[in-house]
Design brief:
It is built from 4 helices and 49 strands. The chain is mainly beta.
């Protein structure tokens, strides 16, 4: 602990050493009539006495500008942007009593005579913007987003890949933490996928991709994706309504209403989303079993999965400005997702001669109840206008789920004679309690330097119960070999310090985060299973460094370097040893012995304006986590495990934003990777080197009279992850949009997966005497129709600054 305090103090002294005597500064933001940033707007600073030009700057991707190293005197400034009226400020003075002048948002109004054309083109944000520690995807630049749900939007985001099971990876790295407005959903796997499907894509403002998060963020993930929702915060009542219908194999619909009321010091907001989600998918497994003969025995399994359900999300809250500098906030949300799952499966068993031995048919019928309640109390106090701030958060989140499933199975001889008739039942109640608290302090320093520090505590209890029964003679007989009760507890205590300093052409950010983790698991056991316990305790320090250098004074070319260490913790369900059934021949289970993964990630970037960006990455994972599949008596059991070795990745990822014509913008993202794996999950150890690539092309077209369109495509190359080899796959989608009701509404039509080519084919290897082929076809092809309407005055809308709260530690680690 003494060494840690020494490091923190050294970082503090280092930051102060970067801070010479203060010079005067002017800063602010340039926005359009819709309160969106105006990138590239020109801001000119004049000396009032003789109107001479002192400095001239261009607004960055967020519309921000800043003039530094100014002397005492009286000034005024002008702001200009194509298609907008010029803005001129009144005169203002800099002196020893007024070292910093911070302008409120400067709103540029559209020029007369060309409002319709110029406002749309000039104020439109680019699809991709780069910052020192993140890549920003402006969702409004993806026309198809409005008719998609959030999970689909993520799947179309350059650099993000959504697997068939709903898991999300960023730049080829799993263990990604997904945040909503900087707050954790505390979900992962199928529950996270279901939650993201319930959020309309039209409600998204931007997506922030952080492959190397700073020390401010929890270290328990490989990377962070922050989804920022649109916010309307203006005097009076305003909001938005969203209706959509999707026709694939089954009809779907999601609808939302968001309302905000701001009156003086009080701001109330509420949102309600209803999602009717019926979907169908099919899995085909072809498994060959070698027993020493020339011809193998085999099985052909076909599963048709029907999901019928809906989700309801309600969110409400308020902000109270107790004074000009102090604000309190309260947020509460309730989510419910009842659904019915039905899997109809057949399993044809063939002998070594190729003759049919038996046919198994059955269904798995499940009824599921899932609820979540979350509450947040937050506090913010700004000591001055320069950015000195103290904030605090308290969170409580509770999850409850209950699952009941019937699994009948009938086995027939080739002549149709019933050989065996089995029926199994299981009931899985579970509950999770999460408490978190967090305090952050921001101290701006002279000469464009800043210091951040904070403390964090989290306490989690995860209680899972599994009750399995065999039905014999109409009686439910407890299956103690599969039943159990598992309780997992974890607490994490964290502290961090993060410092940032900017010179004329150089920016530096350095951070350290300390996390002390204690966890315990208790498997209570029963008459057939011996109870067991485990404990784990570890303390780690995680550094992060960011460097950014401007190669010219106009900020046209920028190079960057970043390095961060992370610790990828398993989600809670991955530690649960219970079996989960897909069918009678395919199971999955958790692993209570699963260990965290130590991750080191380095990136170099070169950026030319906001047009071309080249990212080079090197990633190392020790004790990397993979899903290991075992075969036992023809049954496949998949369980997460740690790699006895290391996994390394080298990648290059160029992205290009090309304005082909005034009406056509093309955005191209490419990724090429070399993955090297040493060690293995199963003997013998493997030494694999594979190459893979992805491509994402988004074409946006803008036309007169409020028309726009998009034609885009995604290609994912061959992937190999130890036991799983996935074939290349691709898809094409188109979208058309027409603004109505004087721009306050829009009608959109999306044709998703035009050629129905987004099909997963994979080979499972590394199984002794077994070869398995798997094909997954989902309901991805369909036509979407959406209607959106925004009501209320949107001018001078202010965005909620309070986005990060105490719910950061177990982000994305809950799975049902």
């Amino acid at each position: 602990m003494k060494s840690l305090l020494f490091i923190l103090l050294a970082g503090l002294l280092l930051t102060f050493s970067f801070a010479p005597a203060a010079a005067q500064t002017i800063n602010g933001f340039i926005k359009d009539q819709q309160n969106e940033p105006v990138p590239g707007a020109t801001i000119t600073l004049y000396r009032h006495s003789d109107s001479t030009v002192v400095q001239r700057k261009a607004a960055n991707g967020q519309g921000k500008f800043e003039f530094t190293a100014l002397s005492n005197g009286t000034y005024f400034l002008k702001a200009t942007a194509i298609g907008n009226k010029d803005y001129s400020s009144t005169q203002f003075r800099l002196d020893e009593s007024h070292r910093v002048v911070a302008f409120p948002a400067i709103i540029l109004l559209p020029a007369k005579g060309n409002q319709l054309k110029e406002v749309v083109v000039a104020a439109k944000r680019p699809l991709i913007q780069e910052d020192i520690d993140r890549t920003i995807i402006n969702v409004d630049a993806m026309i198809s987003a409005s008719t998609s749900n959030t999970l689909d939007v993520l799947g179309k985001t350059p650099g993000v890949l959504v697997a068939t099971d709903g898991s999300v990876s960023l730049y080829g790295r799993g263990g990604v933490l997904v945040l909503i407005d900087g707050r954790s959903t505390y979900l992962s796997g199928q529950d996270l996928a279901a939650y993201l499907r319930s959020l309309p894509g039209g409600s998204l403002d931007k997506i922030e991709l952080m492959p190397n998060p700073s020390a401010k963020y929890d270290a328990g993930s490989s990377a962070i994706i922050n989804i920022v929702l649109k916010k309307n915060r203006v005097q009076g009542i305003n909001g938005s309504a969203y209706l959509t219908f999707d026709q694939g194999q089954l009809p779907r619909s999601f609808n939302s209403l968001n309302v905000n009321y701001l009156h003086q010091k009080l701001n109330f907001f509420s949102g309600l989303t209803y999602y009717k989600n019926d979907t169908r998918s099919e899995d085909v497994f072809n498994r060959s079993f070698f027993t020493g003969g020339a011809a193998p025995a085999s099985s052909a399994i076909s599963n048709v999965f029907d999901y019928r359900g809906h989700s309801l999300l309600a969110r409400t809250g308020m902000d109270y400005a107790a004074s000009k500098r102090t604000a309190f906030g309260l947020i509460a949300s309730l989510a419910e997702r009842p659904h019915h799952d039905r899997v109809a499966y057949t399993n044809d068993q063939y002998g070594a001669s190729g003759a049919l031995d038996s046919v198994a048919r059955g269904t798995s019928n499940g009824d599921f109840t899932w609820r979540q309640f979350s509450s947040n109390l937050n506090f913010t106090h700004r000591f001055n206008d320069a950015g000195k701030e103290l904030s605090a958060d308290l969170n409580y989140i509770y999850y409850f789920s209950r699952a009941g499933q019937q699994i009948p199975n009938q086995v027939y001889l080739p002549n149709g004679t019933l050989q065996r008739n089995d029926l199994a039942l299981y009931f899985l109640p579970s509950g999770k309690n999460i408490y978190t608290a967090k305090v952050d302090y921001t101290l701006p320093l002279p000469a464009k330097a800043k210091l951040e520090m904070g403390l964090k505590s989290s306490f989690v209890t995860n209680d899972n119960e599994a009750n399995y029964f065999k039905v014999i003679g109409g009686q439910n007989i407890a299956d103690n070999g599969r039943s159990n009760h598992f309780i997992y507890r974890e607490d994490v205590q964290a502290a961090y310090i993060n410092s940032r300093k900017e010179w004329k052409n150089l920016g530096v950010q350095f951070g350290l985060r300390l996390e002390a983790t204690r966890s315990s698991g208790h498997q209570l056991g029963n008459a057939g299973v011996t109870g067991s316990t485990f404990t784990n305790s570890y303390t780690n320090v995680f550094p992060s460094v960011f460097l950014q250098y401007k190669l010219d004074n106009k900020n046209n070319q920028v190079i960057g370097l970043s390095f961060a260490q992370r610790l990828i913790r398993p989600n809670y369900q991955q530690l649960n040893p219970f079996l989960t059934y897909v069918d009678n021949y395919t199971y999955s289970s958790g692993n209570p012995n699963l260990q965290p993964v130590r991750n080191e990630h380095m990136e170099m970037t070169w950026r030319y304006r906001q047009l071309l960006n080249i990212r080079m990455a090197y990633d190392v994972q020790k004790n990397a986590q993979f899903d290991a599949t075992h075969s036992l008596n023809g049954i496949f059991i998949t369980q997460p495990d740690n790699l006895d070795g290391s996994s390394r990745m080298i990648g290059i990822r160029p992205s290009l934003m090309l304005p082909v014509t005034t009406a056509w913008n093309a955005n191209l993202y490419l990724s090429f990777e070399q993955d090297m794996t040493t060690g293995g999950l199963l003997p013998p150890d493997q030494h694999l080197t594979i190459y893979t690539g992805t491509a994402n092309l988004i074409n946006n077209f803008s036309f007169a009279h409020g028309w726009s369109a998009e034609i885009s495509g995604i290609y994912v190359g061959r992937q190999e992850r130890l036991q799983r080899i996935t074939d290349p796959r691709w898809k094409v989608y188109t979208a058309t949009k027409k603004k109505i009701w004087k721009g306050k509404g829009a009608v959109e039509i999306l044709f998703e997966d035009v050629f129905h080519s987004w099909i997963t084919n994979e080979t499972i290897t590394g199984l002794a005497g077994v070869k398995s082929l798997h094909r997954n076809t989902q309901d991805t092809q369909g036509i979407f129709v959406a209607l959106t309407y925004n009501f209320g005055n949107e001018l001078f809308a202010r965005r909620n600054k309070h986005q990060d709260n105490a719910a950061d530690a177990e982000k994305g680690r809950i799975d049902q």
